[in-house]
C-alpha cells in the first residue's frame, strides 16, 4: 500500500511544534511576531508579472563555479525554487519534498528543477548534500535575480536578535555580507526564458505544495 506524501504544511507544523520547549520563549515570540508581520504585509505589489522575461544573473554553483540560470536550464523549461538558506529548517523540509515529489514528474516532461538562494556556495553544498538533493542548488550573490523579481526582504530587528542568540548571523552566511533574503518563491519558466507563473510566500513557514507546482507546469508550459 502506497503511503500518501506528507504535505509541506504538515512538515512545517512539525518544525514549529518541535521548537516548543527547545527554544526560549522570547526567541519563539520574536519569530512568531515576525511571521504575523509578514502575513499582514502580504505579497509585494511590485513582484514580476507572468509574461515578462525571467531575470538572470551571474550565479555560483555549489562548488563555487560560475554559472547562470540560463546555463542551468540548458534550453529547457524550469521550475525555479527561491529559498532563504540551509540554516532555515522550513527550507530544508521544502527542498527535500520537492526532490521526492517533483523530480520524476518534471523529468518526464524535460523540465529542470533548480534551487536558488543568497547564501555562499558552501551553504548550497550543505543544502544539497545534507538533503541528498538530485537537482542543482545555486547561489545568487547580492540577490540580483530576487531583486529583479521583487521578492527580496530582510528579517525584522527582533528576528535578527533572535537569530544572533542562536548563533546565526546572515551577514556571515550570505554571499554579499548582508541580512537580505528572498521570500520563498516558486517560478515556472518556459524554454524561451519567459516567466509563466510565480507563487510568492512572504511568511517563510508556508511553501508552495508539489501538487500546485505540477498543476502550474501542466497549465502554463506547452
UniProtKB/TrEMBL annotation:
One of its GO terms (molecular function) is thioredoxin peroxidase activity. It catalyses: a hydroperoxide + [thioredoxin]-dithiol = an alcohol + [thioredoxin]-disulfide + H2O. It comes from the Bacteria. One of its GO terms (biological process) is cellular response to oxidative stress. Its EC number is 1.11.1.24. Keywords: Antioxidant, Disulfide bond, Oxidoreductase, Peroxidase, Redox-active center. Gene3D superfamilies: Glutaredoxin (3.40.30.10). GO terms for cellular component: cytoplasm. InterPro entries: AhpC/TSA, Peroxiredoxin_BCP/PrxQ, Thioredoxin-like_sf, Thioredoxin_domain. Belongs to the peroxiredoxin family. BCP/PrxQ subfamily. Thiol-specific peroxidase that catalyzes the reduction of hydrogen peroxide and organic hydroperoxides to water and alcohols, respectively. Plays a role in cell protection against oxidative stress by detoxifying peroxides and as sensor of hydrogen peroxide-mediated signaling events. This is thioredoxin-dependent peroxiredoxin.
Amino acid at each position: 500500500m502506497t503511503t500518501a506524501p506528507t504535505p509541506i504544511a504538515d512538515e512545517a507544523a512539525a518544525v514549529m511544534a518541535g521548537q516548543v520547549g527547545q527554544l526560549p520563549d522570547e526567541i519563539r515570540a520574536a519569530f512568531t511576531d515576525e511571521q504575523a508581520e509578514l502575513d499582514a504585509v502580504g505579497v509585494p505589489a511590485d513582484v514580476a508579472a507572468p509574461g515578462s522575461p525571467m531575470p538572470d544573473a551571474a550565479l555560483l554553483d555549489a562548488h563555487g563555479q560560475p554559472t547562470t540560470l540560463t546555463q542551468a536550464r540548458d534550453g529547457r523549461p524550469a521550475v525555479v525554487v527561491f529559498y532563504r538558506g540551509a540554516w532555515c529548517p522550513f527550507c530544508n523540509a521544502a527542498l527535500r519534498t520537492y526532490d521526492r515529489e517533483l523530480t520524476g514528474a518534471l523529468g518526464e516532461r524535460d523540465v529542470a528543477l533548480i534551487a536558488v538562494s543568497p547564501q555562499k556556495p558552501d551553504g548550497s553544498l550543505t543544502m544539497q548534500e545534507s538533503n541528498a538533493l538530485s537537482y542543482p542548488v545555486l547561489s545568487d550573490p547580492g540577490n540580483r535575480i530576487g531583486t529583479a523579481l521583487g521578492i527580496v526582504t530582510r528579517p525584522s530587528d527582533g528576528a535578527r536578535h533572535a537569530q544572533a542568540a542562536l548563533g546565526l548571523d546572515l551577514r556571515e552566511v550570505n554571499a554579499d555580507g548582508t541580512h537580505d533574503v528572498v521570500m520563498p518563491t516558486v517560478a515556472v519558466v518556459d524554454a524561451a526564458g519567459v516567466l509563466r507563473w510565480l507563487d510568492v510566500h512572504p511568511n517563510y513557514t508556508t511553501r508552495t505544495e508539489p501538487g500546485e507546482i505540477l498543476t502550474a507546469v501542466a497549465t502554463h508550459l506547452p
